């Protein structure tokens, strides 16, 4: 055949640092990273900060300015962009273009940095803008919520919503560094503190029964904002998530997305609720539904399914919601199933459980069993 | 130190096929590719066609429809998008969003295809829209110009212009296949036929003196639209370009872009001319300028510099243009040098020549020598 073959591999490497008070003058972690990464040129750094973080830490821009004041290899862009926290920053292209225009205005080149401080949504937004400006500016993530520190912030995806669809525009673009600063966790609302725990439950359920057992033992401590327990949870969850990405198909070029246990319905509920149900809260409901389905379809023991719903409840999660109710084949959440099939690429791959700590893929969900699963969760919920 | 390390490699593979009359029912190349790539699901394919191609091949959509009529594993989206050919399709976000909305409307999933037929600009546009829709839809390129068949179309970059800057938004996203259909070359204008040859001259000058010698011997044949000569030129140039990408730094994460000989001034002239000077024409002028600079800075023999300008002239290229004139440090084209530095990432890396077939990088250009180089090219031009 008359053709030329092209084949190459691209190597990606980054560290996820765990620290406290990242911008305290005495904390060397960020400066050390920049020194180790610096080449022959002066690099710029532009900060995008979550408005939610600014509310609790109004002095942050000044702190950052001081922190970088004696680093000659770096030019800090003094003007920092404040992006509205939560999904709203991803629901319009406005903030995306605001970052892109800042790249132009401040002359941020491909080897300079865009650093984002905030929850998963602001990190997704800034990561996407960084990934496509000049075909990719170096991106640093400073996740400030449980959810972003243990899951989305340590991974390789970014994106914004478009046409009302979650992450319709986005890319796979590894950050150059992630700084998980635990001190931000103390100022989270109870809902935000709790919200990210569901991703840890998810990864434990499909990969690590000992971790699920640990969460079960520490559910009360976690619900009561015990910082040591939360730090352990975040590190373990981040490690499992990163192993999954690095050891598998980081850019999801194959057809399966096995980490997404409990997510197919969660995405739809978030959207239907106009994001008043947080991602982590929706994931807890999605885990409950898919655990019930795993039980009712004969894959999982009833005791295990009850255990899972019990742990979610002990953590403070609601396991059901009117928007999650499945009454017939036309139920709104079932529409999410088709959209998810499309987003994945044609063939549906849904992760279910054959045991605690063991995920198993399936390619079809039965509507009748889904209706019974939804009823089973609602009935569990009403008794607890 | 308290951190987790992430490290992984992502493998990319694709073939560049050389063929004639790709959509003739009897041509198996495209169908064979789709069969070999098909998995368990029916895939969709959506076509974006260059308006310039449509002008000369108005029956193309019908041909495509017939070609795919007996392929059960594929669903052809009957509605095809016509995008204006040339840089204008990249100068606004309008066509980008038109493709993204088509992805939504027709339910194009991540494992379906967006196929683009046209010149480099339309391929860049469609490649970018494909790369960020659903975080990356499979992209097929069918380049129809000399420039796209031997250079941009076989590579891994895409993009659109923003804020008047070329490729300000874009990504590195390898296609899944490239089909170089030589039959499209017969309907090109003389300017489009010629335009892409300058990229072959470029790659020959920095990598392959024997290829430059071949171009020199065949300059008249190429200028007279000899098809055999052109096919050889395209294959050799594509192979050299692909070797460079695959063997080097495909996503340009390092600081240098050594294939860009002659390009720093070319980009600026295209923009200053509002794209009335074609990319390939601008590159020919850029090659002339940088060859002159290589000579006047003592790196290259005068005979070689004259040879290069002679070959460009014999191919029908203008080697100078009022917009390329450098009279002082404020000359418009010098502004391009700073923009290029920014786009590259801080440190300027310019390729010059130490001999025909041997590129050599430098990190500074001297303004006085640039002024003399510009004069030298103008004086050569006025005598030939």
Overview of this protein structure:
The structure is a homodimer of 384-residue chains. Chain A is α/β, with parallel strands linked by helices. Chain A has 2 domains: 15-187, Rossmann fold, CATH 3.40.50; 190-383, Dehydroquinate synthase-like - alpha domain (Dehydroquinate synthase-like, alpha domain), CATH 1.20.1090. Chain A has helices spanning 29-37, 51-56, 60-67, 94-105, 120-132, 146-150, 190-195, 197-207, 209-217, 219-223, 227-247, 263-272, 279-296, 302-314, 332-344, 367-383; strands at residues 3-19, 43-50, 74-76, 81-83, 113-118, 138-143, 160-162, 165-169, 177-181, 350-355, 358-362. Chain A is globular and about 65 Å long. The N and C termini of chain A lie far apart (66 Å). The model of chain A has no long low-confidence stretch (mean pLDDT 93). The interface between A and B is large, with 72 and 72 residues. β1 of chain A pairs antiparallel with β1 of chain B.
Write the layout of secondary structure elements.
The structure is a homodimer of 384-residue chains.
Chain A: E1 3-19, H1 29-37, E2 43-50, H2 51-56, H3 60-67, E3 74-76, E4 81-83, H4 94-105, E5 113-118, H5 120-132, E6 138-143, H6 146-150, E7 160-162, E8 165-169, E9 177-181, H7 190-195, H8 197-207, H9 209-217, H10 219-223, H11 227-247, H12 263-272, H13 279-296, H14 302-314, H15 332-344, E10 350-355, E11 358-362, H16 367-383
Helix pairs in contact in A: 4-5, 8-9, 8-11, 8-13, 12-13, 12-15, 13-14, 13-16
């Amino acid at each position: 055949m008359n053709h030329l073959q092209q084949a190459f591999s691209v190597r990606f490497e980054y560290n996820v640092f765990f620290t406290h008070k990242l911008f305290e003058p005495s904390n060397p972690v960020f400066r050390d990273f920049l020194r180790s990464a610096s080449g022959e040129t002066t690099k710029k750094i532009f900060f995008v900060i979550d408005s939610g973080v600014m509310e609790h830490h109004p002095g942050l821009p000044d702190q950052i300015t001081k922190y970088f004041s004696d680093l000659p290899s770096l030019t800090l862009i003094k003007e920092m962009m404040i992006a509205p926290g939560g999904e709203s920053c991803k629901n319009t292209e406005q903030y995306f273009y605001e970052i892109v225009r800042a790249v132009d205005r401040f002359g941020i080149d491909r080897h300079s940095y865009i650093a984002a401080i905030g929850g998963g949504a602001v990190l997704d937004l800034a990561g996407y803008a960084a990934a496509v400006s000049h075909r990719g500016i170096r991106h640093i993530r400073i996740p400030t919520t449980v959810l972003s520190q243990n899951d989305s912030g340590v991974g390789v995806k970014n994106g914004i919503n478009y046409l009302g669809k979650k992450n319709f525009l986005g890319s796979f673009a590894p950050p150059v560094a992630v700084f998980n600063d635990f001190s931000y966790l103390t100022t989270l609302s109870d809902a935000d503190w709790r919200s990210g725990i569901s991703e840890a439950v998810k990864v434990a359920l499909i990969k690590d029964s000992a971790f699920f057992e640990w969460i079960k033992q520490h559910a009360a401590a976690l619900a009561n904002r015990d910082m040591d327990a939360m730090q352990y949870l975040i590190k373990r969850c981040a490690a499992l998530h990163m192993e999954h990405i690095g050891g598998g198909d980081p850019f999801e070029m194959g057809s399966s997305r096995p980490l997404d246990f409990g997510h197919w319905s969660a995405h739809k509920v978030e959207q239907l609720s106009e994001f008043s149900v947080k991602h982590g809260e929706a994931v807890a409901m999605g885990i409950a539904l898919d655990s019930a389905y795993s039980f009712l379809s004969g894959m999982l023991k009833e005791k295990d399914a009850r255990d899972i719903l019990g742990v979610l409840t002990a953590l403070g999660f609601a396991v059901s919601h009117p928007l999650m109710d499945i009454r017939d084949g036309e139920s709104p959440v079932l529409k999410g199933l088709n959209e998810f099939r499309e987003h994945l690429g044609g063939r549906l791959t849904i992760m279910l459980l054959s045991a605690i700590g063991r995920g198993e893929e399936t390619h079809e969900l039965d509507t009748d069993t889904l209706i019974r699963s939804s009823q089973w969760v609602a009935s569990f919920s009403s008794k607890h």
